[in-house]
Write a structure and sequence with these properties.
By secondary structure, the chain is α/β, with parallel strands linked by helices. It has a single domain, classed as Rossmann fold. Helix content is 32%, strand content 27%. It contains 7 helices and 10 strands. Strands 3-2-1-4-5-10-9 form a 7-stranded mixed sheet. α5 packs parallel to α7. It is globular. The two termini are 33 Å apart.
Length: 240
């Protein structure tokens, strides 16, 4: 995918979150069901959860809140997101908690993925479907893997929206002046303000390629979340 198309698709999503940030925060305050299932797989040999956490595309910081509530010691949590409104919600939610020391950066992870620091856990939830381009997604995963400390984990989800009729019913035709790749879709938002978002459907073949690109060891793979309990595919990878 060429740079112009990547920039255009990314701009669609930047506008989407600018329009929907308040609705998004209001409708996405709780923990994902799949996070509970994840916890046993990311504990160390002493049974402790990761302490240094990078949350890529952190949104309103709800994963940080969830992890802090289950951790044995205070977290050192760093969240990155491109939307200032969602980041403000995250800062407000975590500012007074004694169980988490949180810092945040406003940044576009599509154009500038995190390139410094090492962490016991790098989390990528609800993001990979917004990264335009097959090669770019593999490069993105490889970059995140470099942020994982020895013995640490990279956990990501792929939203399997295209497998459900209620999401296929929301697909909008692409404009004629844009050329996208296979499994690239434009979805409308049916809550509050009218907005469109670019989403890529990661199938099983591509999911395996994304794991391979990291060079990390796959620890667990499962489906969870949503009305049917299987809308996200989770993979937890470890640097051994």
């Amino acid at each position: 995918m060429d740079r112009h198309t990547i920039a255009r698709l990314n701009a669609i999503n930047r506008r989407f979150y600018a329009i929907t940030a308040q609705d998004f925060d209001a409708s996405r305050g709780g923990a994902w069901a799949g996070w509970e299932q994840l916890l046993p797989h990311i504990r160390d040999t002493r049974g402790a959860l990761p302490r240094r956490v990078l949350d890529v595309g952190c949104g309103n910081g709800r994963f940080g809140r969830f992890l802090a509530e289950h951790a044995e010691a205070p977290l050192v949590y760093h969240g990155i997101d491109s939307n200032s409104t969602l980041l403000q919600h995250a800062e407000d939610a975590l500012a007074t908690r004694a169980d988490i020391k949180a810092t945040f950066d406003e940044g576009d992870v599509v154009t500038e993925p995190p390139d410094a620091g090492t962490y016991d856990l790098v989390a990528l939830f609800g993001v990979i479907h917004h990264i335009p381009g097959t090669i770019q997604r593999e490069t993105f995963m490889r970059t995140l893997a470099q942020r994982v400390a020895p013995g640490g984990f990279l956990v990501f989800t792929a939203w399997r929206f295209y497998e459900y009729e209620r999401f296929r019913a929301r697909l909008i035709p692409w404009p004629e002046d844009i050329t996208v790749e296979r499994h690239d879709y434009l979805l409308d938002w049916q809550r509050g303000e009218t907005a469109l978002r670019y989403c890529h459907y990661v199938d099983d073949t591509e999911h395996a390629r994304l794991i391979e690109a990291t060079g990390l060891e796959s620890m667990v793979d499962y489906r969870a979340d949503g009305r049917t309990g299987d809308m996200n595919r989770y993979s937890a990878l470890k640097r051994v």
